Amino acid sequence: MKASAFFLEEDLIVQESADTSPCHYQESLIESGVTQLNTCEETPEIPDDNICQEEDLIVQESADISPCHYQASVDESGVTQLNTSEETPIIPDDNICQEEDLMVQESADTSPCHCQASAKETGPNTSQDVGSVKELSEEDAKDLKEESGTTTCQPKISRRKRVEPPTNEGNNTISLAEKYPEPGRYFKLGEQIGEDPNGVIYNGWHRSRRMEVAIVIIQDQEKQKGIQKEVQVLEMVSGHENIVDFYGAYYHQAPRTPSLPEGLWIATEFITGATLQDLIGTRKTLGERWISYICKQITTGLFHLQKKNVIHHDIKPGNILITSLGEVKIGEFGFATFGRKSSSTSGTITYSAPEVLANFGNNKLEYDHKADIWSLGIAAIEMAEGDLSFSKLPQQKLIEKITRGPTPGLTPWGKWSDEFHFFISECLQRDPSKRPSARHLLTHPFIGEIRGERGVQKNIAQQLHRGMKH
């Protein structure tokens, strides 16, 4: 707003001063995206002279600084939203009142950031599937709220100098550099220790946690795009004792530190041990107590995924990690999906449930997390017998056997308990509606009543050490 004449300046100041008030205000966002302001109006003090006082400008400008700490949040489109806090501007020395009028209009654009926790709105991570939380049962929702509720300070963006992130369509490197932080300040990169289908694996040191981690560095841009969904799943499910811990995704640009490899860095728990597949290879059979212990740990992890509305799609011995202490952890979430239902055909056919394989072709039949329970049952047979006799069939015959043939089971000449046979038959119910959920399976006598569980864990760790040593 501009004054029409200098002699009317005092009157205009009176009118304009109602736009500012020492009263705090709150902002609420409606669905249209428009910010509504609730302004507490008070009778302003009229200046004693006609000269724009520098002190008044300083007071009006001071409302532009918000105590809310900077926080970046990533929406579903992958665009980073920035909250910019402007410093108090330098006040010009001239006495022209046009500058003051402009500042009065701008001064109401910021407010203290009020934080409110809501499991429905925030979730454990910025990538949480909001819609999935609403579909939980009341009891599971209560468990989920206890496990994942966090407090997130949602920043407000000042209208004074709104910073719009640059668009980077078609330029994946720049968008990832904006989306993920620079890893150098968080990690000290160690030696290369292996490779996986996505990239090179290094060990590293987490500076703030003061612990060793595993870092996969992905340089291929197509693989960088593909793994971002897995990153979102890991953010949601990490933090459980039977899930491999996730320590974040980062992006390094070579010009900043040429000595570090450029690419997307995925930091996870560093596990000194082996896969369940490796453990099976050290013995002809793992024995019933060992199988009982391992199945219980996997089922506990699957129950956690069930509460998070995540379907793994690839539960098999090669994706189950056994630590040097005998702990059991589910890894490899590359095929995982969000939501209570899925129609994906991803996974390993040998361990896939009939309802999953029914979608090969033009079918789009939805199924739920019980598909992972079938995979657990097949893995239990492999732990008992060392291998799966039907796994070497051609793909089409294998699919037909799983979908139409006799239900797999333990060989009749094996010396297995009735509880173990019952456990296998429950996991491998062809009709998923009759198959137990992970929650109900935890009460099964085969895994619910393990004697000497600590001793079993210790024995597995010792066997793993001997087997890997040789």
From TrEMBL:
GO MF annotation terms: ATP binding; protein serine/threonine kinase activity
Chain segments carrying region Disordered: 108-176
Origin superkingdom: Eukaryota
GO biological process, one term: neuron projection morphogenesis
Gene3D superfamilies found in the cross-reference section: Phosphorylase Kinase, domain 1, Transferase(Phosphotransferase) domain 1
UniProt-listed Pfam families: Pkinase
InterPro entries according to UniProt: Kinase-like_dom_sf, Prot_kinase_dom, Ser/Thr_kinase_AS, STE20_Ser/Thr_kinase
One cellular-component annotation, GO: cytoplasm
Domain Protein kinase: 187-447
Protein name, entry field: Traf2 and NCK-interacting protein kinase-like
Organism: Xenopus tropicalis (Western clawed frog)
